[in-house]
Amino acid sequence: MKLPVVAVVGRPNVGKSTFFNRVLGERIAIVEDRPGVTRDRNYARAEWNGREFYLVDTGGMVEGSDEPMDRLIRDQVLTAIGEADVLVLLVDGKSGPHPLDYAIAEHLRKTQKPALLLVNKMDNLGAPTATGHHEFWDLGLGEPFPVSSTSGKGSGDVLDQIVWQLPEGTEEEDEALRVAVIGRPNVGKSSFVNRLLGEERLVVSDVAGTTRDAIDTPMKYHGRTFIFVDTAGLRRQAKIDQGVEFYSSIRTERAIDRSDVCVLMIDATEPIAVQDLKIAEKAWDSGKGLIVIANKWDLVEKETMTAPRYEKEIRDRAPYLHWVPILFTSVKTGQRVNKVLELILEVQEQRQRRIPTHQVNDVLRALVMRTKAPSHHGRPVRFQYGTQVATEPPVFVLWCTQPEGVPESYERYLMRGFREAWGFTGSPLILRLRRREDTEGRPRKKQGTPQPVGQGEEDEVEVQYVRGDGGLDGEFDEDFGDDAFEEGWDAEEDA
Question: pTM score > 0.85 for this model?
Answer without folding.
Answer: no
